[in-house]
Specification:
9 strands, 10 helices, about 280 residues, alpha/beta, metal-binding, FBA_II, globular, binds 1,3-dihydroxyacetonephosphate, eight-stranded parallel β-barrel, single chain
Length: about 280
């Protein structure tokens, strides 16, 4: 059990046709709630933190906490750097023991994206870690600071990225977006199907918050193996604290417990939708 490579989890998910939740975390309570859910539902999970969130959860402090929690877990847990933006941060995550990293060079033309992925792949190989990259660009950004235009993934570019870099997982842009959707998302399953036909490696769906359960199931049936969920867990934790604050008698530790419960509630809900329960 405990700390494992992301590719190991995604391989089992591919063989047994389910999705693995990659849950973004920002503090100890969120980590504890996510792992509690994974243990209770006997599910593998991925704990991740995005580079843009590091000003709030510094990698040198928070990274070792994530690793320690994964090692102590009774289920397999991969620890992942989400949307890595530069080599120094990626290298630090690898040194701390993260078992996978994402390099997000998706804003660059495909050949420059490939060149960045190759650099990260060489580095990650030295640590025995896995690499995820993205083709196309999601609308919005992980911290809501930028409102990118959406650029759908081109399946031919997905193939090119895979053949040139031999990376471990590719994130697609099929109408999904980071943060809360302004209107109901309409996923383009044809792109997923075309990408699936071209590459044998696990595909990744970012922007999990706000996707319907039915679309999650269709994505999993279409070959998505890693599903990123961030905003929904942050909201769940925030709401748990809001409710807690209405109580007459309050103290810090009870509030901390409410945060754990908020994280647990959202992670367990997604574990069941992704059908990763009882897979350990
Ligand atoms: P959401 O915040 O929309 O769930 O997106 C999470 C994500 O894709 C992180 O990379």
């Amino acid at each position: 059990m405990s700390l494992v490579n992301m590719s190991k989890l995604l391989k089992d998910a591919s063989v047994n046709h389910y999705g693995v939740g990659a849950f973004s975390v920002a503090n100890m309570e969120m980590v504890l709630g996510a792992i509690q859910a994974a243990e209770e539902f006997k599910s593998p999970i991925i704990l991740q933190v995005a580079q843009v969130r590091l000003p709030y959860s510094p990698l040198k402090v928070f990274g070792p906490l994530m690793i320690a929690a994964a090692k102590a877990a009774k289920v397999p847990v991969a620890v992942h750097l989400d949307h890595g933006l530069d080599i120094d941060t990626i290298k630090l995550a690898l040194e701390l023991g993260f078992t996978s990293v994402m390099i997000d060079a998706s804003a660059l033309p495909i050949d420059e994206n490939i060149a960045m992925v190759l650099k990260v792949k060489v580095l990650a190989d030295q640590y025995g870690a896995d690499v995820e990259a993205e083709v196309g660009q999601l609308a919005g950004s992980e911290d809501g600071s930028v409102d990118h235009e959406m650029l759908y993934s081109d399946p031919e570019e997905v193939l090119k990225l895979y053949t040139k870099t031999n990376l471990d997982a590719i994130a697609l842009s099929i109408g999904n977006a980071h943060g809360l959707y302004k209107k109901e998302p309409k996923l383009n399953f044809k792109i997923l199907e075309e990408a699936r036909k071209r590459v044998p490696i696990p595909l990744v769906l970012h922007g999990g918050s706000g996707i319907s359960d039915e679309d999650f199931r269709k994505c999993i049936a279409g070959g998505i193996r890693k599903i990123n969920v961030a905003t929904a867990t942050f909201l769940s934790v925030e709401e748990a604290v809001r409710q807690y604050c209405k109580e007459e008698k309050r103290d810090y530790f009870s509030m901390s417990k409410a945060m754990v419960c908020g994280s647990y509630a959202n992670v367990s809900r997604h574990i069941k939708v992704f059908q990763s329960d009882n897979k350990v």
